[in-house]
Amino acid sequence: MKKLTKHMAAGLVCLLAGGMTASAQVVTIATGAQGSLAYNSGQAVAKVANDAGITARTQPLVGYLPLINSGEVDFGFSNGVEAEYAMSGTGNYDREHPELRLVGTMFPLTTGLMAPCDLGLKTIADVKAKASELRIASEYTSSTIIPFYIAGGLANGGLSYDDFQNVPVASFVAGINALGDGLVDIALVSLNAGAGQQASVKLQSRGGLCYISLDDSEAGAAAFKKFLPAGNLVSLKQNDNINGLQDSGATIMQIPWVMLTNASVDDDLVYTLTKAIAEGKDALKASFGAFGRAKTEAMAPASTVSYHPGAVKYYEEAGIPVGK
User: Fold this and answer.
1) With 50 as the cut, is the pLDDT of residue 264 above it?
2) Residue of 161, 159, 201 lying closest to 181 (CA atoms)
């Protein structure tokens, strides 16, 4: 048998390399509908993943945490509260999803209860004094985690949905729109959300929309965490660049926005992706501005959902505390 010439050997190497590339595993990153938080997050992460040599494809899906648990998709996003509920089969989940694992926190989500400013509801104590007179957005039939956010805010002040006149809405944005249209007095609104700013403009004659400041005492925080264990209370000072903060500022909610995977996903793959995210903040921010709020040193906070071993390997190498 003739020996391979140098050119033949080189050609064989190229052929093999090409075959390996063609058959490389494509990993799926589940996202929400186009324009959603999950969609924009997924597009940004897929870009840094591909730059790191991972063949990543985004897949718009709704209610995909069970698909990550079953291994039908490899990665996806969730707020930290819903991730913990899905894992334990509590809250808005009726069964456990034990195969979910955390990759890490992408950035914090800041949100809170808002009301027309002319109602004078500066604090949750003010709300308690008038609760029976107030209409509150409820049910959120297509965003079932939202009532738990609101319930956590209400519990912070010793309240529940039963203390109010409940007005069912379909979604997060529908609740904000109902607020702007004067159909409800209280709804959940994310910090500087476009829909919230539009609702505030509609209510200019009433002073716009104002955040209701929550109780940041130890007891208030504990009541809040019964509904939102992954959440925290954050106090913001009055800032003209933030829509709805009253003169004295407000204490509102902050929830981690996390990336999830399945326990059986390859350790090296998760390690490489975690590293790409942690070290690719500038590229992520350029793709989706929300990543500008990311803090690499805070990517692995305490959670009842375990971190994937591949992610832990990177965090330990990088000196990032896990579960603190």
Assistant:
1) yes
2) 201
